[in-house]
Design goal:
Elements: E1 2-4, H1 10-17, E2 27-31, H2 49-59, E3 62-64, E4 87-92, E5 102-103, E6 116-117, E7 130-133, H3 138-153, H4 162-183, E8 185-188
Parallel strand pairs: 1-2
Antiparallel strand pairs: 2-4, 3-4, 5-6, 7-8
């Protein structure tokens, strides 16, 4: 979530006064327009509005990240106005080991703010686009008949020990799987299913 909170902190006030239902928020970043000694060593005061910011972050289970390079994030051309750190990044608490965000001063160009970046590794996920099922025709009935036959033909008279029981169960599993493979067909889960 990217946030811009003006100098009146209207965005933070909105979040504080409104029940916002955002689930599974991974990252929150933006220009919060809050100076505080906690993230800006050139500023010697604590702003009470930063307490609201931490309440908001806590609500979303986020932690403030400290950049790998401690440089200002806002640069003013106004004479007498100091540079400051008002652009911040918060990350889900369980991912704090990914605290590797960087402030790229050289990317600022003509802007008065510097870009913040973070690298978050995304693990590859298997997305199923098809599945096996029994078509709505005689194949379904054929499968059921084959499974019934498998159960009827099982030799269960000599189940005297663990090993013989395991053999019968393994045979049952193999024959039901064989019947499934003979009758099931692969179909797309949805009409337009495809891997991205």
């Amino acid at each position: 979530m990217n946030i811009y909170s003006d100098t009146s902190h209207s965005t933070l006030k909105y979040f504080k006064d409104t029940k916002v239902n955002i689930n599974n928020l991974l990252i929150m970043t933006g220009n919060f327009n809050i100076r505080n000694w906690l993230w800006d060593s050139s500023f010697s005061h604590h702003s009470s509005i930063s307490d609201d910011l931490f309440i908001l972050a806590n609500l979303f289970n986020l932690d403030l990240l400290i950049p790998t390079n401690l440089v200002p994030t806002r640069y003013s051309d106004t004479i007498g106005e100091s540079y400051s750190v008002i652009d911040l990044m918060f990350l889900r608490s369980s991912l704090s080991k990914l605290n590797n965000h960087v402030i790229y001063l050289e990317w600022r160009l003509t802007s008065d703010h510097t870009p913040l970046t973070i690298t978050i590794s995304i693990t590859e996920e298997l997305v199923l686009t098809s599945k096996f099922l029994l078509p709505k025709n005689s194949k379904k009935e054929a499968f059921i008949k084959e499974v019934v036959f498998v159960f009827k033909s099982l030799e269960t008279l000599n189940l005297s020990n663990h090993e013989s029981l395991e053999q019968v169960v393994n045979l049952l599993v193999a024959r039901v799987e064989q019947a499934w493979n003979a009758n099931a067909r692969r179909v797309n889960i949805m009409k337009y299913s495809k891997k991205w």
